[in-house]
Design brief:
The structure holds 2 protein chains of 2 kinds. By secondary structure, chain A is mainly alpha-helical. Chain A has 13 helices and no strands. Helices cover 69% and strands 0% of the residues of chain A. Chains A and B meet through helix 1, helix 4, helix 5, helix 6 and helix 8 of A and helix 1, helix 2, helix 5, helix 6 and helix 7 of B.
């Protein structure tokens, strides 16, 4: 509209300045800290130590992910000088939870969206109900998981024991514990996939569906040939968004199992939090966090490329 | 289930001649819809049931009150009676922090959103928007340590203002995005006319644009409020005593009393009720708001 009116800048600036001050500055501060040995309790800390923090973190990650004796090990071995042996496990935990949660939410979300895309009475109310978990505090949902998945008395194990005769060691076995946390996260975010996919399904032209129905009446064929290709872009977008978000997951494992058993459900973010603000090793904690920042920047760049020129319109 | 849909289509085509297959498919569709609803509601319902149980009852898989177990108000009276001072002080802190950051974020967000929708900037509007939205991708953990040190320096640790600043920063991108989208989709003829009549851009914004933006503003406010209310990570480091919000109180439950399920369920329910009820009113904005505008809702 007024296009190049000078007044525009006054609307824009307050928000932009706020973000600059409260995001860019902390990020730069944190970058600076990551090159130091700053510890809150130590008076003489804060010396510049170069890339040592990053060496510890990346060395630990490589040590855990590249098996010794594999052909790649020789190539990465020089990088592993002073590895942090705990960080590797947290990366594996985070990767498992992210990929697992994204897979579960997408499969269930698409399925439920397909169900709810039928014209049945009360469907509007049902759709609202489906989105209820989205805005519940994750820290509280961790406790919900604690109650539901409890090995001895939880309702989930009660049902499983009734059907199979055995119970699942949700809280004591490493991979089951990770799975339990993952399922709570998936329960919270399936509604998100549901509501996005439903919106995508509803934007498919009715004529297109009608025309396709003349050729085939098989619901599976229709879904695979028409619906799926048309909702695929939306699916790609949410998959990326959820991958980034779940990789940052911290509240649910923290309140549900406190990172246990051992440190099995301690995610990468959780570990960085513990190092930086529970052990007050702020230099190393910042380096751990910064590695995550770099990953997030890479993914967000791809994400915004995908969005194309959506924001060029309407200006 | 696949067959269900197929049969359903058949039913829709031949409504006049009801057949058993059609009814069966309709029945199956309903069955799965109800299963999905139950799957979402079950944990909430189970938490409500558990909150009316004693510790011993909570260890049994009973769920019909008065028939299978005698409900008790012990947990609720503990939280709202004996523990009332602590509970209400934490809820008050949560409310102050959430409302404060919602006001800040919505004020800034509406201005910036309007600017991005109505004006053209040399730096490129698309770049600006991408930059604002990319803030949501930043792991909060990366700003946690600097924020802690800065608040310590400014003597704002454990204060409402400190927490309001932090939460405003996190929810501001949502507010900007929702408001920009609203204004970008809203016809600007009236604003243009007012401008031709000699009104200043600020007058146009306040008198013409702002009044029509009320629904979008409400949605932005609800989403901001919910996220600020649910924030735990920063509170656990920077608001642990006087400004302690309810999420922090919830998280400290198990350490204080051991794992007491009934009590845990009570606190959990108090923590989630407000945002969950609010969320029922922002359906239209969830898709765009939470996908950062990538998917149109």
């Amino acid at each position: 509209m007024y296009k190049k009116n000078r007044a525009g800048i006054f609307f824009l600036l307050p928000g932009v300045i706020w973000i600059l001050v409260f995001t860019l500055f902390p990020l730069l501060y944190s970058l600076a800290l990551s090159f130091t040995d700053r510890q809150l309790a130590k008076p003489n800390s804060g010396q510049f130590i170069g890339l040592q923090n990053y060496g510890r973190a990346l060395g630990g990650i490589l040590y855990a992910t590249v098996p010794e004796g594999s052909p790649f090990y020789g190539a990465v071995a020089p990088l592993i000088t002073n590895p942090d042996l705990r960080v590797g496990d947290t990366v594996i935990t985070s990767l498992y939870m992210s990929l697992g949660s994204v897979t579960v939410t997408i499969v269930l979300g698409v399925l439920i969206a397909w169900l709810f895309n039928h014209d049945i009475p009360l469907i509007r109310i049902f759709r609202s109900v489906m989105t209820m978990p989205l805005f519940a505090a994750p820290i509280a949902l961790g406790f919900m998981g604690l109650i539901l998945f409890n090995e001895e008395s939880g309702i989930i194990n009660y049902v499983i024991r009734g059907v199979t005769g055995q119970y699942v060691p949700w809280f004591t076995q490493v991979w089951w514990a990770r799975t339990a946390v993952l399922l709570v996260d998936a329960w919270q975010w399936t509604p998100f996939v549901f509501i996005v996919v439903l919106a995508a399904m509803q934007s498919i032209p009715v004529e297109l569906m009608e025309a396709a129905r003349l050729d085939s009446n098989n619901a599976w064929t229709l879904f695979r040939k028409i619906t799926l290709p048309l909702i695929a872009p939306a699916l790609g977008t949410i998959a990326m968004l959820r991958l980034v978000e779940t990789f940052k997951i911290l509240d649910i494992p923290l309140s549900m199992l406190g990172g246990g058993p051992g440190s099995a459900t301690q995610t990468y973010s959780y570990y960085a939090y513990q190092v930086g603000l529970k052990n007050f090793d702020m230099g190393y904690g910042s380096a751990l966090a910064y590695i995550l920042v770099v990953i997030c920047i890479i993914i967000s760049t791809i994400y915004f490329r995908r969005m194309g020129n959506r924001y060029e319109q309407g200006e | 289930m696949v067959d269900t849909a197929q049969k359903l289509k058949v039913t829709q085509r031949s409504v006049s001649s009801p057949n058993i297959r059609g009814r069966l498919s309709k029945f199956l569709l309903w069955l799965f819809v109800i299963l999905a609803i139950l799957w979402v509601l079950f944990p909430f319902v189970w938490a409500v049931i558990t909150s009316f149980k004693t510790q011993i009852q909570a260890l049994e898989p009973t769920f019909i009150p008065w028939v299978q177990f005698t409900p008790t108000l012990e947990n609720w009276s503990q939280e709202l009676g004996l523990g009332a001072p602590e509970t209400f002080s934490a809820l008050r802190n949560s409310a102050i922090i959430a409302i404060g950051s919602t006001l800040f974020a919505c004020t800034l967000g509406t201005l910036t959103g309007y600017g991005l929708a109505r004006f053209k900037f040399r730096i490129g509007n698309r770049n600006l928007i991408s930059w604002v939205l990319s803030q949501r991708f930043m792991p909060p953990i990366a700003t946690l340590i600097p924020f802690f040190l800065v608040l310590q320096f400014l003597d704002l640790l454990d204060t409402h203002l400190g927490m309001i600043i932090i939460n405003t920063t996190f929810v501001l991108p949502f507010a900007i995005l929702i408001m920009r989208d609203f204004f970008a989709d809203f016809p600007d003829e009236i604003e243009e006319a007012a401008l031709v009549d000699g009104a200043s851009p600020l007058q146009v914004f306040l008198r013409v644009a702002l009044p029509v933006a009320r629904p979008a503003l409400t949605a932005a406010a609800i989403i901001c409020f919910a996220f600020a209310w649910n924030e735990y990570l920063f509170a656990s480091v920077m608001a642990t005593r006087t400004a302690k919000p309810y999420t922090f109180l919830v998280a400290s439950t198990s350490t204080v009393r051991g794992v007491h399920f009934g009590y845990l369920a009570t606190r959990m329910l108090i923590a989630i009720t407000l945002p969950v009820i609010f969320s029922l009113f922002v359906q239209r904005y969830i898709v765009r708001g939470l996908t950062l505008g990538a998917v149109k809702g």
